[in-house]
Amino acid sequence: DIQVTQSPSSVSASVGDRVTITCRASQGISYSLAWYQQRPGRAPRLLIYAASRLQSGVPSRFSGSGSGTDFTLTISSLQPEDFATYYCQQANGFPITFGQGTRLEIK
Amino acid sequence: QVQLVEFGGGLVKPGGSLRLSCAASGFTFSDYYMSWIRQAPGKGLEWISYISNTGSSIYYADSVKGRFTISRDNAKNSLYLQMNSLRAEDTAVYYCARESVVTYLFDPWGQGTLVTVSS
Asked: What is the C-alpha separation between B7 and B110, in angstroms, rounded?
């Protein structure tokens, strides 16, 4: 099974800050990685797929990069609605696996 | 608009059974692969099962294999999860999700239904 490991597990930041979250896969998965946002009490929402492609309707302050085993999610200028938990997910095949999540908190 | 609504969750004793349903609307259900994904209280996301649009291909996570059965009724625009031999560690919010335009990705998700396994 492909394991995906996120870091950090939590991060504190202020509105307007730039934040980067990383995800590492246990083996190469090319560009088959997605990022989701989950606000408290809500279902997850797909933000980025194929490592760097923005899902329709997602603000351009979100960006993704990476390939192979190392990936990043960057939020260029945090907005109040961005404080949430973020998950990466490998889409290389079964079993589908998620990272453990990164909680983004207001400083 | 695209909508997924899960129901059927509740409190069940260890060893018991429960059947979850997911009602889909706003899209051609029979065109899409579907999945169940769960989230234990305060924990992360765990994919548990996947079914192709015709039901001919099905996959399970090891944690539920042999106990859970995914199925669908395209005529009723509905997805199901039959859960047997439930354990305390199956306590979670269960989400149904539609496969996105990209294989093995999920968009959108339903609002989830809570399953609690406790004596």
From this structure: 10
